[in-house]
Amino acid sequence: MVAGKTEVATDPSSKEAQRMVASNGSVTLPQPASGYTMRYAFISQRGFYPDSPDKSNQDAALAEENLGGNSGMHLFGVFDGHGEMGTECARFVQDKLPANVCSDPALLVASPADALTAAMLSTNSQLHAAPIDDSLSGTTACSMVVAGRKLYVANVGDSRAVLAERSERQGEGLVACELSMDQTPFRPDECLRVLKAGARVLTLDQLEGLKDPGMACWTNEADCDGDPPRLWSPMGMYPGTAFTRSIGDQAAESIGVVADPEVTITQLSPAHQFVVLASDGVWEFITSQQAVDMVARFDNPYDAAKALVAQAYKLWLQKETRTDDITAVVLFLDWQQDNEQQSQQQQQQAPLRQHELVRTPSKNEQASSVAVNAVAGL
Q1: How many CA atoms lie less than 13 Å away from 306 in the CB half-sphere?
Q2: CA 365, 356, 299, 166: dihedral to nearest 10 degrees?
Q3: Residue-range domain boundaries for the chain
Q4: CATH topology of domain 6-181+258-362
Q5: What three-state secondary structure class fits 375?
Q6: Rounded CA gap, 106 and 102, in Å?
Q7: Can you list the positions of beta strands (E) in 218-283?
Q8: What tens digit of pLDDT does each residue of 237-290 get?
Q9: Residue 138 and residue 81: Cα distance in Å, rounded?
Q10: Backbone torsions φ then ψ of 238, nearest 5 degrees
């Protein structure tokens, strides 16, 4: 990991880790062979929990430069822990994932997408074997490898990666392009997959008999009124996860909660201005487009990440009596001028969207005939 960066977060008992963890300002990574310079920063803000004032930050951020000794290849990630051992689970993945991505050097160079997938699954197995009780605890994981002019994003859970893309069709504004898709019961394909695996999908009101359990009283997040659909075992009132994929959560694997990531590849061009990776503490009350509009106001990623986290924190306090842990990684792409001119010519000839879902469903995912192929826009 980058010296002086994520190491600050590895001691969850420290008061600093309980409040905020941040990169040392904006970090610059030249990518001369690819025609741009990357600048990145991250902020992780501990949530406000009135009933648990000493609760540690269960989020973690990752920045690993020159992955596996490969110049110009870098790994970034956001991990949102949950459950009693959520902090330990998020830190475990933060610590183990880089080495696992690099465990097969030839595969990493030949196919970063496959290397990310294998690393997610092996990290999940390692967590199960570790002296951490992950039966009802785990973490989401949204990880991204930057390799030259390609972005490889692997996602499990409801953290998210968003790319800001300049669109001539909409003037000089930036358009938010989601490089991952939240894996929750709100997605029909994911809901069907876990139902076929034996899960009960119910809100808390349905589980407690306050609403008809036979009715899908939610169709999207705006309709759930703070009571989202959750996954429950047919054997009892657990695990209650509001997501359909994660690392850890052993007890939920029997009802379809898997660590198999959805992976996308994006071909970068000078039309792409920056990337935001963030935990759902950001996305709960901020849309992808709103995040892009906010980040675009700043000329460095540190101030952008700080403002995004602060706005998310403010919105939580306006709408709830608490806040979630909130983490954002922001990466600016500063293109050389000749590449900018070339991009403007290309925009007039072809659409800019170049995102591709590259991985076929695993054995676990094939329980649903629609599986991951319904990822919109990919």
Answers
A1: 12
A2: -140
A3: 6-181+258-362
A4: Phosphatase 2c; domain 1 (3.60.40)
A5: coil
A6: 9
A7: 230-232, 239-241, 247-248, 262-267, 272-278
A8: 999 999 999 999 999 999 999 999 999 999 999 999 999 999 999 999 999 999
A9: 6
A10: -155, 160
- What does the longest C-alpha to C-alpha distance in the chain come to? 63
Contact 248, 239 (CB under 8 A): no
Q: Look up residue 260 and give its DSSP letter.
A: P
Nearest to 208 by CA among 173, 245, 237, 182: 237
Q: Is 286 left (phi over 0), alpha (psi -120 to 50) or beta?
A: beta
- How large is the angle between the packed helices 112-129 and 86-101, nearest 10 degrees? 140
Q: For the full predicted model, state whether its pTM sits above 0.70.
A: yes
Phi first, then psi, for residue 110 (nearest 5°) are -75, -40
Among 73, 273, 111, 261, which Cα is nearest to 177's?
273
At residue 19, φ and ψ (nearest 5 deg) are -100, -70
Angle at 185 between CA 129 and CA 203, to 5 degrees: 100
**pLDDT at res. 219:** 64
Convert the pLDDT of each residue in 189-217 to its tens digit.
Answer: 999 999 999 999 999 988 888 887 877 75
- Lowest mean pLDDT segment, chosen from 36-40, 102-106, 127-131, 220-224: 220-224
